[in-house]
Amino acid sequence: MAASRPPQTDWPRLDAMTDEEAEANALADPDNPPMTAEQLRAAPRMPQVKVIRRALRLTQEEFSARYKIPLGTLRDWEQGRSEPDQPARAYLKVIAVDPEGTAKALVAQ
Does residue 45 have a pLDDT over 80? Predict the structure, then answer.
């Protein structure tokens, strides 16, 4: 049996949709129902590395060097190409709570 090809995306049709049509289509998807307000409140929050970095007034290069995060990884996280795994999320939380202490701990090694 031959493997079936995934359906091709009809970009012109999607581009022509209004926001209301796109939302109606999303709400009609039985495989991905929208979250309730309670589910949203209970959902774990992803640390936003770009927000943390900007709050510290650091460039990507400076943040990468200070916290020993590979620059390519940092860029991938910020641009949404990948997400931090669980240990990295914990590390980002530590940086957000105590950026100076975290940096000092890394220099002391």
Answer: no
